[in-house]
Amino acid sequence: MSSRCRMPDILNTKEGAPRRVGVEIELSGLGYHELITLCSSLLGGDSHQVSRYVSEVNTDLGAFTIELDSDPIKDLDLQDARLPQSVRELGGHAMSVIDAAAEKIVPMEIISPPLPFTELERMEMLCDELREAGALGTREAIYYAFGLQLNPELPDLEPATLLRYLRAFAALYDWLKARHQVDISRKLTTYIEPWSSAYIDLLIAEDYEPDMKQLMQDYLHHNPTRNKALDLLPLFAHIDKKLLASYVDDIRIKSRPTLHYRLPDSDIDNSVWHFSTVWNDWVILEQLVASTTDLAALNRVFRESRKLSLRNLTQNWVETTNQWLRERDYV
User: Of the candidates 85, 102, 135, which is a domain's last residue?
Assistant: First the structure.
């Protein structure tokens, strides 16, 4: 079967190793133990329990983590020896009630190991098969705000490379958001905020050529939070943890040499939605980054679109972006 996941031009890091991407997908509609059993079968691995609501499925690609995505519930232990005996005696019954309730209102999350780009068909297959088994996505209920997150490894950690990715994302943000048709439940949350407008103006300025320290300081001054559609804090923790800590103190930040793309919905129960739908849109950004000429051209158009003028007041940037990409065969 031909691959539905497109590949970018830059498949290897500067050191020659295959680039990898971590995938995180939230869903509901299946019981926790049912999901573990299905993932073990579909991925061809053996599962083991790490804690009450966290399990791992060991595969040839590494360990996939399956968990109930709520720290307070994951940490709850009514059998703790520090609790009174009377509470512990009732603990088993209470936890059964909590389990049943949690599976209804708390998303479950599948977290992949870092996967070579060329192995992403496994995620495509997994999402399609889970849909057939009854998995539900973010549109199923107004209180769901389920996401699919990508953590793509960068080709290198040079400031000029990162700057190209940031400029490409700034220009494509509105277009990507429209493509993903972000559900109202996630629009109402603060998880996927755009970067500040002042930062975007600084970022796309023609003469902006920061070193890594300046790039980090500028970003963190304007965006000192994880809750951005493209979150740079894990990457900054990897590059300069001390500098990051002077702006943000959050124990949830995990150091890794990747971007953290948080924008897409997990629309897994939608028959026309696929993992590749999301991934292939990211590949368009990758291809734009790989073309210095095209990225510079789009950056100029984007810079002009942000100026106050009658023309810009009557033009739609999403439509302009889509037309620009079509004319250059990106879509």
Answer: 135
CB of 263 closer than 8 Å to CB of 180: yes
- Asked whether residue 111 falls in the same domain as residue 197, the answer is no
- CB–CB of 27/110 below 8 Å? yes
Q: Give the pTM.
A: 0.87
pLDDT tens figures, 100-124: 545 555 789 999 999 999 999 999 9
How far from 233 is each of 18, 118, 217, 255, CA to CA, in Å?
A: 23, 26, 12, 8
Q: Which residue among 107, 135, 163 closes a domain? A: 135
Residue in the block written with tokens 């002077």: 246
Alpha helices, H only, 114-224:
121-133, 159-180, 184-187, 197-203, 212-222
The dihedral built from the CA positions of residue 257, 261, 266 and 267, taken in this order, carries a sign that is negative
Whether 191 and 107 map to the same domain: the answer is: no
Element (H, E) at 115: strand 115-116
* Cβ-based neighbour number of residue 44 at 10 Å: 12
Both structure tokens of 170: 């700034």
pLDDT digits (tens, 9 = 90+) for 6-26: 999 999 999 999 999 999 999
Write out the residue range of the structural domain in which residue 119 sits. 27-135
Element (H, E) at 111: strand 108-111
Positive/negative CA dihedral, 182, 184, 187, 192: negative
Are 281 and 176 spatial neighbours (Cβ–Cβ below 8 Å)? Answer: yes
* Within a domain: 159: yes
In a domain, 11, yes or no: no
122: tokens are 């496994």
Residue 77 is assigned to a structural domain of this protein: yes
